[in-house]
């Protein structure tokens, strides 16, 4: 295969994607929020991002109506960022961006998030992780038990990109629904309904 | 019926309850958190309180490791405070304390919390409200659709205490599991499993 003169065909493709105005500058979290809003507006699913956990230490009341928090600290989250309900099933997932093109560092997911995903799966949840390789602009859906099994047995500090290609499902980008993970869930869990 | 000399038999009973050291000073939220912790530790259910939603405006980094939030504001919650999974079912509820002995003010529940509870119920959730009449020290489980139907049709600004006695289920206080709402859910949704 012949590369472009600068030998960077992939980079060229990326640049085109990045200049797509509708897509530019949107990060995974805001895109998932947009998809959740889309699902909500069409009454397909009720899935929300949980607020960022903070420990509030000091609150001022400069006006009667508006309390102002003047001292607070970020807490390590004890659960995942997203949960809700879809077709009667409890949905629970975590989303992570990864700038490396070759592997995803395991330390990006907190150990209690892993424990949480494992536990909810055992209790009957649809439990998964969304990982975006930002440089490649590819977003994968990965069943959490499959990922956790790999993490627990691989004896490595990162999961190779190729593993996601083999074990994950690429999530399609759509204009109004940028991270359409429910269509992956439909394929995996509700196939009969689609026929 | 003859009252005590000061005519305040009820108050007397309350005082006794309040001097129960194990119970004293605990509020509904912390008791529910304790129950959730109890369910979690016995691997019965995975139900968490969501963090308080805040808008973070300013963050300082006095040390490399510790970010300090120096300006933030409380946001109106768009969902309920608690959700999770129990026996494969999605659980979603809101908890409120009420100091009046005679009625619960409807305005205590935000309109979008009501909309949220209604919506998740429609999607198959076990959706309910826990209301504690603090002065009476009685805690009720109320199916959210039943409460919402009353709120939408009653043409009143509050729900009478007697309505809760008739339509709610009293939640038992237990020492290690102070708000045992899952035993109410077992009765309502998983009766066959208990026999």
Q: What is the gyration radius of chain A calculated from CA atoms? A: 19 Å
Helix proportion of chain A: 25-40%
Spatial strand order of the main sheet of chain A: 1-4-5-7-8-10
Quaternary organisation = homodimer
Q: Count the strands of chain A?
A: 10
Number of helices of chain A: 7
Strand content of chain A: 25-35%
Structural class of chain A: alpha+beta
**Globular, elongated, flat, extended or rod-shaped: what is the shape of chain A?**
globular
Mean pLDDT of chain A, to the nearest integer, reads: 87
| Largest protein interface, residues of each chain | A-B, 37 and 37 residues
> Largest sheet of chain A at a glance?
6 strands, mixed
What's the helix-strand series of chain A?
HHEEEEEEHEEHEHEHH
Unreliable spans of chain A are 1-25
Alpha-carbon distance between the termini of chain A? Answer: 40 Å
Short description:
By secondary structure, chain A is α+β, with helices and mostly antiparallel strands.
Q: Can you walk me through this structure?
A:
Two copies of one chain form a homodimer. The first copy, chain A, is an alpha+beta fold. The first copy, chain A, contains seven helices and ten strands. The first copy, chain A, has helices at residues 9-19, 28-41, 111-122, 144-154, 161-167, 181-189, 191-194, and strands at residues 45-49, 54-60, 68-74, 82-86, 89-98, 103-105, 126-133, 138-143, 158-160, 169-170. In chain A, strands 1-4-5-7-8-10 form a six-stranded mixed β-sheet, with helices on both faces. Chain A has a two-stranded antiparallel ribbon with strand order 2-3. A two-stranded antiparallel ribbon of chain A has the order 6-9. The termini of chain A are far apart. The relative contact order of chain A is 0.14. Mean pLDDT of chain A is 87; it is low at 1-25.
């Amino acid at each position: 295969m012949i590369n472009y003169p600068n030998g960077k065909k992939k980079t060229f493709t990326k640049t085109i994607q990045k200049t797509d105005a509708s897509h530019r500058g949107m990060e995974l979290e805001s895109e998932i929020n947009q998809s959740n809003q889309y699902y909500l507006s069409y009454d397909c699913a009720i899935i929300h991002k949980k607020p960022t956990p903070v420990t509030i230490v000091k609150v001022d009341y400069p006006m009667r109506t508006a309390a102002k928090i003047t001292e607070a600290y970020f807490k390590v989250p004890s659960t995942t960022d997203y949960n809700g309900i879809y077709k009667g099933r409890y949905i629970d997932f975590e989303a992570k961006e990864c700038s490396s093109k070759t592997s995803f560092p395991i330390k990006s997911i907190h150990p209690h998030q892993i424990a949480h995903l494992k536990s909810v799966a055992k209790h009957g949840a649809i439990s998964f992780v969304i990982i975006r390789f930002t440089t490649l602009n590819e977003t994968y859906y990965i069943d959490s038990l499959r990922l956790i099994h790999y993490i627990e047995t691989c004896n490595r500090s990162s999961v190779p990109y190729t593993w996601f290609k083999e074990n994950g499902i690429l999530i399609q980008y759509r204009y109004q629904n940028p991270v359409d993970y429910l269509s992956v869930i439909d394929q995996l869990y509700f196939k009969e309904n689609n026929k």
